[in-house]
Amino acid sequence: MPMKKVLVINANPKANSLCQSLADQYALVAADNHSVEQINIGDLHFEISLNEGYDKVTDLEPDLVDFQKKILDSEHIVIVSPVWWGTIPAKLKGAIDRAFLPGFSFKYVTGKTMQEKLLKGRTSELIITMDSPPFWYKYIQGNAIYKQLKQAILDFSGIKNISSTYFGPVIHSDRHKRQAWLKKVAELARRVR
């Protein structure tokens, strides 16, 4: 099996979280067969808001330059995110707003309706934690995090999502349940091809 460049993103900005443990587990196991980089969104320092949208170029802070570099260097991107108010934490959304810019992740082409996808050739997988039951979140509440990440961000940029795994409810989980989730994440990391 050829070695892949894997980027694991912990989208939970909290210093200690289940997402951090899951991201660490994935990175540790994937490193047995692949080159792994890890980003903890909570450790990045940048202005979260794209105040002028795309109307004005705003210089990227060093952490966002590094974030872009790690995205470009990767072949497989793993996003481990909690569901907060139905979707991703604001700091991950801010990093995407600021770093996934025209000319980096996509490009509008004059005379064409669809954008050019600049991050093609990469795959991704989503690992999602939540306090509600996954069935309820996906089928009753509409699975907004999947639609936002997979359809509106990854697909738009050319990154092909190959799997999505949901863990919950976290709020009432015990040590045994969390150990089972860590074991499942290890299995996912071993499947990277």
Automatic annotation (TrEMBL):
Transmembrane feature ranges: none
Keywords: Oxidoreductase
Molecular function GO labels: NAD(P)H dehydrogenase (quinone) activity
Domain Flavodoxin-like fold: 4-185
DNA damage among keywords: no
Keyword Oxidoreductase applies: yes
Pfam families: Flavodoxin_2
Matching Gene3D superfamilies: 3.40.50.360
GO cellular component: a single term: cytosol
PANTHER family: NAD P H OXIDOREDUCTASE-RELATED (PTHR10204), NAD(P)H DEHYDROGENASE [QUINONE] 1 ISOFORM 1 (PTHR10204:SF34)
Family that this chain belongs to: Belongs to the NAD(P)H dehydrogenase (quinone) family.
Name the UniProt record assigns to this protein: Putative NADPH-quinone reductase
